Amino acid sequence: MKAEKIPVYHYKESGLDNVRLEGVTLLKCERGHKLIHIPHIEMLHDAIAYNTLKKPPLLTAQEFRFLRKWIGLTMNELAHELAVSRGTIHRCEKKGEITRPYDHLLRMLVAKKKESSCQRQMYLEIAMHEVFEKMVKRHLKSAKMTIDVEKLPQHPSQASRQPQSQYAGL
Are strands 2-10 and 20-28 parallel, antiparallel or unpaired? Predict the structure, then answer.
């Protein structure tokens, strides 16, 4: 099996058009089959969801669907949770007919159901902000920065968890 690093990979499997990953590994076997190795897939999805929750504009249809799937609900289950019809959820996800109330309801439901994941992402964001502040204080003017994600501080509740990987078939 051959392995090669891909500089930028369009992560279509997320269901979002705007997600690009850097430094993923493409694995090729002798028979020509290809697999993309995406390390720490759960943390990646947590980060995507957290950044989606933080964005000010209304959710897009793709984002609405991603968040529903991230919290593990079917369309029927989400409709029940939000006290709307399945057709309403379908229109949000397929036609992008997302009103401000539906947007806010979904964001609140997601934040409630995935509170620990959101807290972990906030913790990492704060840690990164502290790193940047230290750099500014030292007057570093480097245009390039490398951060080893394996060495980032972990949220105390996540310290005992093993990182997960995911393989995406092409």
Answer: antiparallel
